[in-house]
Amino acid sequence: MAPPVGARPGWSRRAQYGLFFSFLATIAGVLIGLFLLGLSIVAPHAYAGVRGATLDVTSPVTGALREATTTVTGLVSGAGNYWDAARQNAALKKEQAALRQQVIQARAILNENAQLKAALQLREKALQAVATGRIVGSSFESQRRFAVISVGRGDGVLIGMPVRAPAGLVGRVVEAGATASRVLLISDRANIVPTRLLRGGQAVISTGRGDGTVDLRPLEVGRNPFRRGDIVVTSGTGGLYPPGVPVARVVRLDDDGAIALPMADPADVSFAVVEQPYEEAALRAADEPTPEAR
Amino acid sequence: MVRSALGNNATIGRGPRRLARYWPAGSVAIASTLSVLPIVTEVGWGPDFGFLMLIAWRLLRGDAIPAWWAAPLGLFNDLITGSPVGQSIFVWTASMLMLDLADRRTMWRDYWIEWLLAAILLFISQVVRWDVDALMGASYAFRLIWSPWIIAVLAFPLAAFTASAVDRWRLGR
């Protein structure tokens, strides 16, 4: 059976015109959508104002709900901790003894380092934190990896600033509202972090894979330098991220690189610290589309 | 008729709710708002709740949401989920048009065909999103879209159930 020529609402002229104009409006909607989408792709900062404002409206809700879920999960995991307290206690005691030894060693190294730096007359760059906020939400319905933190322009946060947690690097700010901002996580495909191998210091490029892991490639072609359990830290190249921040831990090797897990899991991180870019020029460069984002 | 008059008369005198015409669109907007839930994950797995709700309504009733309303609803969804502005506007209005075409082509409708149509539309929306993300510098592997797609397809019956429940409620049945 051939399909009918068109949807006819009957003989009413008014209903027919209504249907026709709503059809035209829908086509216009498609075209407007395409136009706006093209604008988002070509000029991502075009909507910064309205998107920042939406972030300000939604993030208090997310933050409040986050508080509640943290409390509940805290109760559950707290109960779990009591469950095998004796075994945990023994393990922790052992760990503490081992750590104490390491602390003494580290202190000695620190002293030596300070002496050597004084001898070389190196000036240490003091990095001050811009703001400290909680990670309240994430883009869980998208393959892009973003997180929302509870600090914004009102706290001095600007687009392009690096974000870190005590455990390691989290990412960098890509949208800033007045009271909340969106962070591009290091596991996002568009986030490329210049790093180096902690063991050996070889330069490594770290790219997100979009599935919660990070892809590591050595800058120099040659033998695969990675081993399971290796840690990469930021190298400070490019001037955005301060050097020496832990980024990821290698979990699997492949042909010429490795797959690694970020050290700071946004789901576990309670506080995120927004810092000044290591070099001020990096902040200005962040406003322009970087070649790495192409 | 006679039977309903003889039965319990709880339904007598009950009409549509106030603003019954706007509840379908409202429920789509509420579904979009689900993305502010404080779920922090390293992997994106969640469905596009607003889109699920929109196609559930469209498949339940052709006239519940006028096709062009998909554009403002899509803009709202883009802003609240943080996806590139225009992506949902385009995908949602285009899906309304595609379902209009599908309505003319399908000889009969049952639940399986609706589920199949929803699965196809969800897949197209995932592919469009993958393309847009690649254009914006995040060209992740194509295989990453399978698991969110399967989750979304499995979540469609829930959306369809919600839509029909809201429909009964708004019409006072």
UniProtKB/TrEMBL annotation, chain A:
Listed name of the protein: Cell shape-determining protein MreC
Protein keywords: Cell shape, Membrane, Transmembrane, Transmembrane helix
Family: Belongs to the MreC family.
All residue ranges annotated as the Rod shape-determining protein MreC beta-barrel core domain in the record: 135-256
Highest taxon of source: Bacteria
Chain segments annotated as transmembrane: 20-42
InterPro entries: Cell/Rod_1 (IPR042177), Cell/Rod_MreC_2 (IPR042175), MreC (IPR007221), MreC_beta-barrel_core (IPR055342)
UniProtKB/TrEMBL annotation, chain B:
Protein's recorded name: Rod shape-determining protein MreD
Keyword set includes Cell membrane: yes
Keyword terms of this UniProt record: Cell membrane, Cell shape, Membrane, Transmembrane, Transmembrane helix
Coiled coil segments of this chain: none
Pfam family, one: MreD
Main localization category: membrane
Keyword Transmembrane helix: yes
Subcellular location: Cell membrane
